[in-house]
Every structure is written in structure tokens, then in C-alpha cells.
DNA sequence: CTTCCTGCAAAAGTTTTGCATTAAC
DNA sequence: GTTAATGCAAAACTTTTGCAGGAAG
């Protein structure tokens, strides 16, 4: 939903290609990680990934290792939020550029897309930062508040 | 620089008032934490705070405790970034609203102010999120890239 | 003086790593 | 068959907590 890759097959083909280009194998546990991440349009914590991954034979240490390796290969992106857990989502080159709604109650993040006008406005800020000698690669924009469940 | 409180005395008076209102004491170690945070216009990690704080008799466990308590009292704000360390800065009610430049090389964050037009553009997004049932309290906007030192 | 805060050391929680075994190609 | 990836258990780190002693008001 809202992903650039409509079918899972297409996604796995792309990921497989990208891993092979990095001399990495598309093993069963990496496949499981990608599958779990693709199932939700929001970043997941390691415990969340494990719940669904364990039944596909995914061990905790492999999950951590896979996520780091997949991030290095440009398949996964680390997402840092307000609580103790690092979160992970598929890379924007696979799902499209988006931002997040972060619930300060339960910690949950949901994907959130913004208007093109807003994205264009960011460009002016990039110029300003560049003038300070900062080389801009990306940006992060989140709205913080209460999700539907936590708003009571 | 860019802070609402020009003098340190004014800052400590405000902080002291805010703590007393919360039935908390402005102890020596809380004073040290505030002083260290006020000295830099960027969020600091706990190790960074300790380096300067130790010589003022600041213990690690007290630093963590103070930072959490000061955050609860609205004097300090937790800032989450890309690495393993939580960062802390003075609350925006003391320093003014701002955003951050985050270096993906060394992890450093620096304060960054944006135009009023950009801030106004965020309001439209808040409306959009509200329509999804999300109650917005705040926002976070960071530019990610390489700081002057890491850009080579 | 009474209550809150501190410091130490131990515990808790998340993430990483060493190494023998297994799976991918 | 080779080489890379896995799984287990142990280690490394960051952050929190219990409790006796000390400081703030």
C-alpha cells in the first residue's frame, strides 16, 4: 500500500539484485527480514520483527546482523525514534519518500506523506545549511503526538 | 548565542523558579548539568556532559537522573539521533525553537533555525495528520549530512 | 530537622561478537 | 567444494535502580 513495488516478487527480485551487486547472498533469514518489513507501512523494532520472524526460523543475532548488512546494502533504513529501540524499514528507494507520525504514548511510528510544495520548501533550507559548510544528504521530518489508540 | 536568555544568571533564575514550582531542589549537580548544556548551542550526549561535569562533582548516575528529572520539569529536552547515545539540550522555552543539522559521520548535532515561512508550512501538515486522528503536539525537522569537519 | 538528592555498585535492557556449524552458490 | 551466513552463548554498552550517607531548605 503506497509502496513502489506492488507485488512481493518484484520487491524480492530488486533486493536480490542489489545484494548480489554487493557480493552478498539473499539467504533465507534475509528474505524473512525483508518480508516482515514489507508487510507493514511503518518502521518496526527488533522485537516486532522477531515475533513474525521466529516462525520463519529467524534468530535474534541474525536479525540484528541482517538488518545492519541490509542497511549497508541500501535495502533497509535505520529509523531512530524517541524510545529505547532502534527501528527499521525498507529503504525509500523501495517504498518511496515519506515521513513519520510518532506517538509519544506507545512509541509507534506510522508512515506519512507530505505535499510536494512542502518538500520544495526544504530545498531552500538545504541552501542555507550548505552556506554554513554542511553537506546535506537527506532530511528527516516527523510529527510527534498521540496516535488514534493513545489519544483516548 | 541565539538563546533567549542572554545571561547565565537569568537562565538559572528561570530554572530555579521552574524547579521550585515542581517541588524540586536546584541542587549543585542539577546546576552543573544546566550550566554544561547552556555552554553549547547543540545537544550533548551523556559522555560529553560528564567530561565537563565531573570536575564540578557530577556523578554519572546523578547526571542520568538529573537529566530525566529536568526533562520532566520542562527544563531539558531529550533529543534522539542516529547513534547509540541519547542527547540532551535545554528546553526550547529557554533557548527558542530550532532544528538540527546531524552529521552522519561523527554523530554531532548542531542547532539550526529555519524561516517563518517554513514553520508556517508545517501547519498545513498538522491539519492533514489531525484528519487521520493523530493529535499533533510537536514536530522534528533535521538535515542529515556531513559537518564541516567530516566533509573533508 | 526533615525531606530530597547523591554516589556507589549492582542490575536491567539492547545490541554486538567469537566460533563451530550450516547453507548458498 | 568454497565462501559466506547462521545460531548459540557470552560480552559490551548504555541506562536504570536500591540503598546508605549527605545536602538543601
Structural class computed from helices and strand pairing of chain A: alpha+beta
Report strand order across the widest sheet of chain A: 1-3-2
CATH top level label of chain A: Mainly Alpha
Radius of gyration of chain A from CA coordinates: 17 Å
Q: Mean pLDDT of chain A, as a whole number? A: 93
How many angstroms separate the termini of chain A?
A: 27 Å
- Give a short account of the largest sheet of chain A: 3 strands, antiparallel
CATH superfamily of chain A: Winged helix-like DNA-binding domain superfamily/Winged helix DNA-binding domain
Number of domains of chain A: 1
CA-based shape of chain A:
globular
Helix content of chain A: 40-55%
Order of helix and strand elements from N to C terminus of chain A: HHEHHEEHEEHE
Share in β-strands of chain A: 15-25%
| Number of contiguous helices of chain A | 6
- Find the CATH topology of chain A: Arc Repressor Mutant, subunit A
**Counted beta strands of chain A:** 6
Which oligomerization state do the chains in this entry correspond to? homodimer
- Per CATH, the architecture of chain A is Orthogonal Bundle
**Biggest interchain interface, per-side counts:** A-B, 39 and 39 residues
